[in-house]
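Input sequence (272 aa), recorded before submission:
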Amino acid sequence: MHDRISVNSICFLNESFAQQLNYWQRLGAKRISFVGPQLDEQGEQVVQAIIDSGQFKLETIVHPLMSGQALNPDEKTWELPRKALSDRIALAQRWGSRSIYMTTGGHGDMTWEHAAETFAAVIAPCVEQAKTAGIQLMIENASPLYADLHIAHSLRDTITLAEMSGIGVCIDLFGCWTEAGLQASIERAVPMCHLVQVSDYVVGDRSLPSRAVPGDGNMPLARLLQWLLAAGYQGVFDLELIGPRIDEEGAVQATSRAGQYLGDLLDKLVLR
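Predicted structure, token format:
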């Protein structure tokens, strides 16, 4: 698999890390990414053994800051999420992860601006901790259907939130490919972008999650990746495949095809 591609553990959401290790080896993956709740469920010792094997570079860890909660201006509600993020940063540093990307917590009844200010205040001490540890903290864009988990639902809002918080951006192309002015947003985001997530969308799908293997759908991936590369993006492209199309084909086969397509596309674009 191409060195600029990482395989996110969400691709094999219901599998143990021991089984995923077998998949990563079969796929020839060089970089992997962990979903925080999976990590918590399966235990640090299993992951530690995978990291110690030296077979993979840990690209990123997904961390829901306020899992199942809305952002709240009451500072007492910040203590546990802040500690959990601090612990995750320490873990990421120990494992050599390049980054952590987050969702914020739900909208609640605050205005967007108040919620954004609250998020920035919650993570402020952790931002400095991450900088000292050499870990890139990021926020991702996600569909409004995840309003119970997150407040940044366009790339433009995600950039604004990142700038307010002093952190970086993870661009999920699935969630922003239809936006107006997208090339300008990408150019604005790239200096603070440390991960790009790639999947595809098939016109007519009406539910989430319903992602497709890159190349199987209707997203203009070649153009989007060209914009990213032209803007100076030098980071990794993370495969995040989930949904009925992936389940029907089989996650390993789907991920293998995705890696091949994306790797070939990157090589062609870089050689232009």
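Checked by second reader. The mean pLDDT is 96.
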